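Subject line: Sequence and fold of a protein, written as structure tokens
Area: Proteins and the way their chains fold up in space.
Start of record: The labelled sequence and token lines come straight after this line.
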Amino acid sequence: MGPSPRMKRSNGFPPLSPEIIEHVLIHCHPRDVAAFSQTCRAAYQIVYHDRDQYLWRQLFLSYPFDDPRESLQRLRRYSPFDWKSELQQRVLAEAISHSPHATPEELTDALQTFLDVVRTASPVTQGYERVPSQSLLWVVDALQCNNMLRSPLFNHYNTSQNLAHLRSYLALTLDDYDEDDVCGMEWMRVLRTRSRCYVYDFGNYCRENDWGPFWKNGCVNWVHVESIINVLLFNFAEFSDPSLIDIRPPCGLEATRAYSAPGATTRDPRDWAGIEGIWARYVSFLDHRDLHAFNTTTRNFRLDGGSFFDRARYGEATLLLNLDLYLVEPDTVPDYYTLERFPESDNPLYPTLYFSGTSTGCQPNENELIGSVHMNEFGVVRWRFASVHRNRMQWRSEGVQVGGVASAAGVVGSWTSVYHEHADPVGPFWLWKVPNPT
């Protein structure tokens, strides 16, 4: 902190050094600090001309928020963190989320802030696996006391991706409703139908988006990701098989933290993505005849409200698969694996990884899996793999990590036929790490 004039005696208070005043301010709410800065020129100097931002850094960390610097390095943001402006944005977003009179612009800004807070939450570290993120607790507290994420003011194209991004991370954990909540039940019914319309629409899959939940420029289509998560979560809720009822992927913001997956903090240093180990995978699919019928009728939810899925007579199934994966060297990948390879990463900390393994499920035969994991320039982790039977690829899967590297929430995406012929099936999947058997 640069030199600052000593506070002069005023209203009977003795003069205090800037260091003492700063120490007192650290224990105040940022709003009180802002009010103090208006009392005199010297107070304003102490609060807003702190060259090293020590005061604002301490206010930020004691709010409390996680220290974002390690997460920002993972996201490849290397510019200095502006503690003052970031704290001001977060306090403002908190106020907006509680305001019944917030404008669409204010809600959009608050949404971006909440998303940034989630993405910069501290990673899980060894020995502190059960210590929650203070930043994520703050986000949940700010959102769960209102219906901000259901606001009709968000029905705008420019907010749809950020809204879906945050809702993908929350995974319906803030969408609880009572049995007598008619509006809540209707909201969930519409949400499920709209999500199914998106996931099972052939028009949302093509070579240019890698047959997955992405845009043609390679960026994640979070509306697609949220729809996949919704479809699977609603399907899970209807399980009647006792052996499946308790087998669910971890959900909620805490599950999106980097290295929150089982064993991630003690992984092999080469395995930055936490690939090696045992995984569970759910895949859902429509009966082929129903999938074809849906895609030859009106598929646009906005036009017919998803009336196809309001009918009782259609078939959708969900299967559980068990995977055992291990890393392999790129030059050992067999020739019959012909999916496009991710580009080599320019970040030596996160090289593109290749893996192989087995997938077993309800059928007695065991399929081989071959694939790769890549971190793109924005810090997003993508998965691509194929299911192989008797040295022939059968199914292709494209997914995105929900949250940070090696998050407990795992990977969600789409599976399709490797042939991509007309009317070939398509469906959603959810893949997550489970503890190794002892």
About this structure: The mean pLDDT is 89. The longest strand covers residues 316-328. The first helix runs from residue 18 to 25. Strands lie at 277-286, 316-328, 353-360, 367-375, 381-389, 392-401, 411-417, 426-433.
